[in-house]
Amino acid sequence: MFSADTFIEQDLVTSAFCYSYFFLLSPNGNQTHNSICIGVMSNETVLHWHCLLAVGEQICKCQMSWTNILLLILHCFSSGDKEAIRRIAYEFVEDKSKEGVIYVEVRYSPHLLANTDVEPIPWKQEKGDVSPDDVVQLVNQGLAEGEKDFNIKARSILCCMRHMPNWSMKVVELCKKYKEDGVVGIDLAGDETINVRDQSCHRLAYEEAVRCGIHRTVHAGEMGPPSVVKEAVEVLKAERIGHGYNTLKDQVLYKQLREQNMHFETCPISSKLTGACDPDFTKHPLVTFRKDKVNYSLNTDDPLIFNSQLHVDYRTAHEYMGFTEEEFKRLNINSAKSSFLPEKEKKDLVNKLYEAYEMVQNAENA
Q1: Of 95, 50, 96, which is closest to residue 73 (Cα–Cα)?
Q2: Which residues form the signal peptide (predicted)?
Q3: How many separate domains does the chain show?
């Protein structure tokens, strides 16, 4: 009998992207880490760990916005801890290895982990000595060490933030600087009500990314309307769409993106907890994506605050959406094909999956 958990444990999973922004203890805390984060809790805030998990469990029951939830717990943050940043990146790779992942692209905002050379300094911190550039170096170091020790491949995507357009040109410059050192793409995250057409810095950053051959993804159509997805594709030249559920509300756009083989980075668990989708998983947009054989992947989103791992998203898709082993294989191959790896590495990854799944790669799906 097929088991989604067993499928994950076979180490045959690619995760085309992993949203990893929130809430980790610093290395001197007593808990393990789940992802790279926008803030690292200081030693004296270990007690707040359980409060954060409680918040995560109650999100789908309350009417608070994500902004208000963040404000509620900002006192737990203390960015700018160099060893914490490096170690969290390392332990992120360890955790993904335990989840059966063989390739992952993790995204984070360098500026939200910095406490110097960033305006304003996040979380009302005092000025320190960790710049966005330092953050990227530390994350790259931790990911590289994790790759070596846990035998999986990890790359990163640097995030622009919609509410901080003045950071975006620096983000694309960091993408260019570390393009050969593990950074494979640029992302735009945050409040989808902020119109990119009115924010020239975001647009210019993405134009520079296109010019320099930097891969591009955009959070769009999660909470925002289909017009945000259209904007991501037409204005920012996105190659992948983060979430993208509300694309289904514009059937002309949906048909266009299907024909373009646009990749949707979906996160079932978080889409319920954030209220982005109907809490009834049988009505989730993924059901339609699957039926229409759309190009998409299953991914984790903020694994600590949602207390979720990849196998939970897989199990949910299997139990509530009717996903079969063959569909998991198909979406993982699509995930690998849509990765931001260089072509040679991408081809090797795809071939590895075909071999592991004992599938024949023909001209149609090559």
Answers
A1: 50
A2: none
A3: 1
Q: Is 44 exposed, middle or buried (0-12, 13-18, 19+ CB in 10 A)?
A: exposed
55 pLDDT tier (thresholds 50, 70, 90)? very low
pTM above 0.70, yes or no: yes
By C-alpha distance, which of 140, 146, 154 is closest to 103?
Answer: 154
Structure tokens at 262: 């646009």
The two three-digit tokens of residue 29, written as one number: 């805390």
180: containing domain = 15-20+62-357
Choice among 105, 222, 239, 265 that is catalytic: 222
Catalytic status, residue 364: no
The DSSP output letter for 77 is B
Provide the 3-class DSSP secondary structure of residue 216. strand
Q: Are 136 and 158 in contact (CB under 8 A)?
A: yes
4 falls within a domain = no
**Which CATH number covers residue 134?**
3.20.20.140
Contacts of 144-148 with CB under 8 Å at 24 or more apart are 144/182, 145/86, 145/90, 145/93, 146/89, 146/90, 146/91, 146/92, 146/93, 146/94, 146/97, 147/93
d(CA 175, CA 186): 7
**Span 304-345, pLDDT tens digits:** 777 778 888 999 999 999 999 999 999 999 999 999 999 999
Between CA 332 and CA 343 the distance in angstroms is 17
Over residues 94-110, the mean pLDDT reads 92
